[in-house]
């Protein structure tokens, strides 16, 4: 039995996602790669942006081999707004001149102290963790308005709720994403475009395990979570599937925490 067939037996299938066009940032690895995989296995047409070319192309090829609709990978530096817009237009064209679902996922949670933050670091962090969210929404709006529907999902973090320490600029950006989500939900609701945020907790991606999962941090996670297990990227992806599907058609302006009960 293939991975896709096995997944279909265990988890929900959403008929409304079949053949829907999905655009996602930061899809080559981690939570983003899980989202690309889960949407492809639903039969969605997926385009995703990243700068990790080897991982992005390998993921697309692997899913095509499974028999899923082959995802479209685009190399894209999200900090370059003009490049972001060009890639968005290309993706929209190749997805059939529409985007039904936009997921603003890409981020960089580089640790930093207050003292070491320079104006250049501040600008770079915001250019990675917040600015692309707005300009990608701006790029897909014409197609969503024309279709009379859409689901936008912005990835934030419980870091702005706990709050986390040791990365103040990142946390500020993640808090701003919640505010952006709320205002966009009211701006776009008249067009039947829904806008929600997802706030993951400690997710066991390869990057997190490699860079930050010290024994001390793992102990802190277990102490704070009500559920005593590591949260896997697929668990976040399945929440995003629900928010993208028509099953959540009355849900907008909300922020969903997925953290095993830390908050």
Describe the 3D structure.
This protein is α/β, with parallel strands linked by helices and 263 residues long. The protein has one domain (15-202, 233-258): Rossmann fold (3-Layer(aba) Sandwich), CATH 3.40.50.720. It has helices at 3-10, 30-41, 53-66, 81-94, 119-129, 131-147, 168-188, 206-211, 215-224, 233-244, and strands at 21-25, 45-50, 72-75, 101-104, 150-155, 193-200, 255-258. The chain has a 7-stranded parallel beta sheet, with helices on both faces. Helix 7 links the parallel strand 5 and strand 6 (193-200). The radius of gyration is 18 Å and the shape is globular. The mean pLDDT is 95.
The CATH superfamily is identified as NAD(P)-binding Rossmann-like Domain
| CATH structural class | Alpha Beta
CATH architecture: 3-Layer(aba) Sandwich
How is the CATH topology named? Answer: Rossmann fold
Shape: globular
The helix content, as a percent range, equals 40-55%
Strand content: 5-15%
Biggest sheet, open or closed, and with what strands and sense? 7 strands, parallel
Gap between N and C termini, in Å?
38 Å
Number of strands: 7
Question: Structurally, how many domains make up the residues?
Answer: 1
Sequence of secondary-structure elements: HEHEHEHEHHEHEHHHE
Structural class: alpha/beta
Round the mean pLDDT to the nearest integer and report it: 95
Q: List low-confidence stretches.
A: none
Q: How big is the Rg?
A: 18 Å
Main sheet strand line-up: 3-2-1-4-5-6-7
Number of helices: 10
Topology:
Elements: H1 3-10, E1 21-25, H2 30-41, E2 45-50, H3 53-66, E3 72-75, H4 81-94, E4 101-104, H5 119-129, H6 131-147, E5 150-155, H7 168-188, E6 193-200, H8 206-211, H9 215-224, H10 233-244, E7 255-258
Parallel strand pairs: 1-2, 1-4, 2-3, 4-5, 5-6, 6-7
Helix pairs in contact: 2-10, 4-6, 5-7
């Amino acid at each position: 039995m293939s991975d896709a067939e096995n997944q279909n037996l265990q988890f929900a299938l959403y008929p409304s996602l079949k053949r829907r066009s999905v655009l996602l940032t930061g899809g080559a690895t981690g939570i983003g790669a899980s989202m690309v995989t889960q949407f492809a296995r639903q039969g969605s047409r997926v385009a995703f942006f990243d700068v990790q070319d080897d991982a992005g192309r390998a993921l697309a090829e692997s899913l095509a081999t499974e028999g899923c609709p082959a995802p479209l990978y685009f190399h894209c530096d999200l900090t370059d707004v003009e490049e972001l817009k060009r890639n968005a237009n290309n993706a929209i064209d190749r997805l059939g001149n529409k985007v039904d679902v936009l997921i603003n996922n890409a981020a960089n949670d580089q640790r930093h102290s207050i003292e070491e933050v320079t104006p250049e670091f501040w600008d770079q962090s915001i250019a990675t963790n917040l600015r692309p969210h707005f300009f990608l929404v701006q790029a897909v709006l014409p197609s969503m308005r024309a279709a009379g529907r859409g689901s936008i999902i912005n990835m934030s973090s419980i870091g702005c709720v706990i709050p986390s320490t040791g990365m103040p600029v990142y946390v500020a950006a993640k808090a701003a994403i919640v505010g952006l989500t709320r205002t966009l939900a009211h701006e776009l609701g008249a067009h039947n475009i829904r806008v929600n945020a997802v706030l993951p907790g400690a997710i066991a991606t390869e990057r997190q395990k490699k860079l930050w999962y010290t024994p001390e941090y793992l102990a802190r996670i277990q102490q704070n979570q009500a559920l005593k297990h590591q949260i896997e990227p697929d668990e976040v992806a399945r929440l995003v599937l629900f928010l993208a599907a028509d099953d959540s058609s009355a849900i907008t302006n909300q922020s969903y925490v997925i953290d095993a009960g830390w908050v």
